[in-house]
Design brief:
- Strands 3-2-5-8 form a four-stranded antiparallel sheet, covered by helices on one side.
- It is α+β, with helices and mostly antiparallel strands.
- A hairpin with a 2-residue loop joins strand 2 and strand 3.
- The chain has a domain of 162 residues: Band 7 domain (Tetrahydropterin Synthase, Chain A).
- Helices cover 63% and strands 19% of the residues.
- The protein is built from nine helices and nine strands.
Length: 360
């Protein structure tokens, strides 16, 4: 039949079928036959969609910037949105209304108004660095906007892709940034050199402190050595003094011993001298006694006959002495003797006696 059509939609499309000004069918992802001459179709996309935007704003310091970003949204109340914007499609599925364009324009305008409220209070440098702050501000304000709730929309996300100054200002900022970077590079070089100098100074100070510590340690060692040497010398001095005292004591003791020995010898000599004197006196007395006795004997013998004395003396002689005495007497009277005969035995006896006396 002419005019009978079949409609098949995506699950993300919300379909409304109007006939005679009333909604006959509605729901997401519907598929059905309809009579085109008497029916109107409205398809509202209910999936999440991105609405990109770019616009220019003037800042507090009268500098212009281009702001580019996008807003992500989805339709939560398709019937309410369809009653406010035209999403009519033809029998071939092509849009006949301008609902999608107007919806994106309204979202962009709402974003621009919200951003302008915040960004007009910033200068250029602040605005270029305020991307995250602006995103948080706009996202919070859009979630509270009554206009979006009236349209049946829910903002899922908001992002600012870039904030660009004008080309002239961009070149100026680039030059300024370049100069700042060069200055920072120079500062970094200076800081590195200063750091190197500081490190060199610290190293020198550490070396000096080390040298001072070494010198102090060496001084302590020298002092300890000197103290040890002084202690050793004092000990040696004490030992030497003790030795000298000992030697002096020994010398004194030796002198005392020698003195005692000398005194003992002197006493001994005196005693010997006294003994010798006594012995001499005794010998003198003995000699005197013996002489007196001899004198008395001689006086007694003087009164005796000499011949008797010879006889008495001969009695005390041995035969050989008697022979010798006889020979002496013969020699004394030799002029009176004519011949003298001596027997061989007597001569042999006299010779043997003479030989024996020589050997003795």
């Amino acid at each position: 039949m002419f005019g009978l059509r079949y409609l098949k939609t995506r699950p993300a499309d919300y379909v409304l079928l109007y006939r005679a000004g009333k909604v006959r069918k509605h729901g997401p992802g519907l598929s059905f036959f309809y009579f085109a001459p008497s029916a109107s179709l409205v398809i509202v996309p209910a999936d999440s969609r991105d609405a990109p935007f770019i616009f220019q704003e003037t800042l507090q310091d009268f500098q212009g910037v281009d702001i580019q970003g996008q807003i992500t949204y989805r339709v939560t109340q398709p019937e309410k949105l369809a009653s406010m914007l035209d999403f009519t499609v033809g029998p071939d599925g092509r849009p006949l209304g301008d609902g999608a364009e107007k919806l994106q324009l309204r979202l962009t305008n709402q974003v621009q108004v919200t951003l302008r409220e915040k960004i007009r209070g910033l200068n250029l440098r602040q605005a270029l660095a305020a991307g995250p702050e602006l995103v948080e501000f706009v996202r919070g304000r859009l979630s509270e906007e009554a206009v979006l709730r009236e349209l049946g929309l829910e903002v899922l996300d908001f992002a600012i892709l870039r904030i660009n100054p004008t080309p002239e200002m961009a070149r100026a900022l680039e030059a300024s940034a370049r100069e700042n970077l060069l200055k920072e590079a120079d500062d970094a070089i200076y800081q590195r050199r200063n750091f190197a100098v500081e490190q060199e100074r610290i190293i020198k100070e550490n070396e000096l402190q080390t040298d001072i510590a070494v010198e102090e340690k060496q001084r302590q060692i020298r002092e300890a050595q000197m103290n040890a040497e002084i202690a050793v010398q004092e000990k040696q001095k004490l030992v030497e003094e003790a030795r000298m005292d000992a030697r002096a004591s020994v010398a004194r003791r030796q002198r005392e011993i020698e003195k005692e020995d000398m005194e003992a010898r002197t006493n001994l000599e005196n005693q010997k001298k006294e003994l010798v004197g006594l012995e001499s006196e005794n010998r003198i007395q003995q000699a005197k006694s013996e002489g007196e006795a001899m004198r008395l004997q001689l006086d007694a013998l003087a009164t005796l006959n000499p011949e008797l004395l010879e006889v008495l003396a001969a009695n005390q002689m041995d035969p050989k002495q008697l022979i010798s005495r006889a020979m002496r007497d013969l020699a004394a009277s030799a002029e009176k003797i004519g011949n003298l005969n001596i027997s061989p035995d007597l001569l042999q006896s006299l010779l043997e006696q003479n030989h024996t006396q020589r050997q003795g």
